[in-house]
Amino acid sequence: MKKICSLLCLLLLCACHMGHHYEVYHYDNGEDYAREGLVRIVDPVTQKIGYATPDGEVVIAPQYAFGHPFHNGVAKVTHQGHLAEVEGSHGEYHTWQSPHWFYIDKQGYEIKR
Question: Which of 52, 57, 67, 47 is nearest to 110 (CA)?
Answer without folding.
Answer: 67
